[in-house]
Amino acid sequence: MTERRVIVKVPASTANLGPGFDTLGMALSLYAWIELAASEDETVINLYGSGLEGVPRDKSNLIYKVAQLVFKEAGVAVPELHISMYSDIPLTRGLGSSASAIVGALVAANALIGSPLTEDRLFQLATKLEGHPDNVGASLFGGIVVSAWDGTRAEKVRLEPHPELEVLVAIPAFQLATEKARHALPKEIAMGDAVFNVGCSSLLVAAFASGQLELIGHAMRDRLHQPYRAAFIPGMAEILEKATEHGALGTALSGAGPTLLALVEASSPRKDELEQFLLATLRREGIEAKTLWLKPCAGGPEVTTLVRDEVVPAFMERIKGEVKA
Ligand code: HSE
Fold it and tell me: Tens digits of per-residue pLDDT, 226-262?
């Protein structure tokens, strides 16, 4: 049995960034922590913090199942585990909580058995589990990740986020299941809309890569998914249309929503105005929301490996200084 104990800190992510549906992702400075150790007897799963109440504590738990997938791939058996998790990433809000759990579990399980699987293998597994590479790519590699998946293999390029980029998110006080938000999308789209998105997504990537932040507003527009999802988030259409008039570089639905995201220049004097515009527009529609100012997270998961019986502080004691709660 492995004598290691592993703690992984993994970032949240935002997917699509407007036009890059299932393709673009950015890691965010909001985190989940997962601890994994082999257990000599039964599996024990401890979940800390609010928001994880409904998450299973038996072997149907996603982290347990993903860890077992890693062990199977590597040809080792670690049937019983001690799992602890704390997350600041709200569930089902479009901030990649499930992708963070998948990536955190893959990285932690791999580290627990001496990292036999490559990072690329983990990316392929994560993409298959999630069904698209955008959130998992961002959580695994950090920064801005541009990826394409053909159903068999995902390739990616990671871009360094511009140091002036900040991210304002408005997180509505209701959940929206990704499945429901994907179900609202049409089976077919018009050629004109496809061409529009190819242009915007390509321009957005080029703007990020070249540091031309002033192009973000023009590029961060979408006709593939946001118009069809707007009905779930009253106020969203107005925010996407007008936030640039209130100091945003560009705005998008974060992933499948309901969180809305604005990219902002760190030195902008209009941050308060923008935040109030988002909150007031949602409130007018009867939606309470919480705003957070985040940064793109440049790095992927941070792994701490301990010898299992080393005298170390308990999980929550160890991460206490870093969590938001
Ligand atoms: N690209 C995905 C979507 C992200 O928009 O449905 C959410 O998982």
Answer: 999 999 999 999 999 999 999 999 999 999 999 999 9
Cis peptide upstream of residue 163 (ω within 30 degrees of 0)? no
289-294: strand order across its sheet = 250-253, 260-265, 165-172, 289-294
Q: Which amino acid is at 311?
A: V
Choosing from 98, 129, 182 the residue with most ligand 1 atoms within 8 A of its CB, the one to mutate for a pocket test is: 182
Residue found by looking up tokens 């999980």 in the block = 315
* CA-22 nearest atom, ligand 1: 1
pLDDT digits (tens, 9 = 90+) for 39-89: 999 999 999 977 788 899 999 999 999 999 999 999 999 999 999 999 999
Beta partners for 235? none
Are the beta carbons of 6 and 105 closer than 8 angstroms? no
Put simply, whether the predicted model's pTM sits higher than 0.90 gets the answer yes
Specify which residues 28 forms β-bridges with: 12, 296
Locus of tokens 């392929």: 124
User: Was 93 annotated as part of a binding site?
Assistant: yes
Q: How far apart are CA 160 and CA 75, in angstroms?
A: 35
90 is in an annotated binding site: yes
Does the Cβ of 96 fall within 6 Å of ligand 1? no
Task: Please give the Cα distance from 216 to 248 (Å, whole number).
Answer: 9
User: What single-letter DSSP state applies at residue 244?
Assistant: G
Ordered by where they begin, the domains of the chain are: 4-160+297-319 (3.30.230.10), 165-294 (3.30.70.890)
CA of 314 to the centre of ligand 1 (A): 35
User: 222: Cβ below 6 Å to ligand 1?
Assistant: no
